[in-house]
Amino acid sequence: MNPLPDRRKIAYLCDLSPQDPLTYSGGNARIFSALQSHVGDVSVLDPGWGRVDMVRRLIRALPEPVTIRALWRAQLALSRLIAPAIQKQLTEGRYEVLFCAYAFHALAGLKVPPGMVSIYSSDATPTTYKRSDIGASFGSYLTLSRLFDPMILGAERRVFRGTDLLLWPTEWLKSGADGLYELEAERSVVVPWGANVADPGKVDLAPSPSRGAPLRFVLVGRDWYAKGGPLVVETLKLLRARGVDAVLDVIGVIPPEDVTEDFVTAHGLLNKAQPEEMAQFERILRRAHFLFQPSFESYGFAFCEASAYGLPSLCLRIGGVPVREGVNGHALPLGAGPEDFADRVEAYLAAPAAYDALRRTSRREYEERLNWDAWGRSVDRLLSKRNR
Hints:
Strand order of the largest sheet: 2-1-3-4-5-6
Radius of gyration: 22 Å
């Protein structure tokens, strides 16, 4: 297939394939597709390690918890031996743009050919994550890994200062990265990411919440504790004690055995690529009143997906959650407990018109900001501005 005229020639670099819709929670595939739709013709580079690729294969053979942490650290340490293989692909391909997603370590030691614009995007960097409240809550897998921290920070500074455009999905990450790496404002830009679902189109409003009908909440994720499952259950217990028929649908993770409440329904992992399972996912979100996810994460595609369905979110103001206060939900301060969330919910029981308005602005937030077409158009404008 010949490239269309006047379309940029883009090289896509990541340590995992964007053709796999599951890598990086689906963000990798969405970024690739949005670039192809709005920015140019995209070719995926081979992320292999060249003459030391045997090392990569050996690390991949280790248990997954070890592989996840060891692989990118090893790539940083061996960057001078790995970079030439990627550099050769860039030179031979005569690309206009190099776009790197998630894998900043793939840029280490790389000399981008003259005239080629380099772009990087991720929802976190290793050091900003580790120094944040989120990183502190999880801690290090191995104390030994802390010995690599100075090397990692030095590599981050070299890579990010040498990249033409840094596209962060959240102000949380931009502000942290700007200060830590001393980045210039014109190169470090917030461009929100989108939902990992197709646009569901016009969304009918669910029945306004009331004490006379079930009040439906949904939680989406694979880690019960990281997604805030215990806080959600405790809040619903409190609401029920106050006379609210609060019920919870859980998509993804199966709650632990000690979660025995009959108001909790676990649906397991739903594959959105399977029509039947996607239809079940849609039914759950369309009938829900709130996505309730007080999670510890650097972004959270589930919040974008909730907005796509006009579903307000309840969460904690931690990390880069794409929830704007009073626009597509409420992000309460870190430390908020069941009483705080229950009070917020009960305020809408007393003011159903305010809830209906929140659903409308949640959907508008998706239409205007939290979709991949908007992201792709923004990237296209930024590149066009550079070429003026």
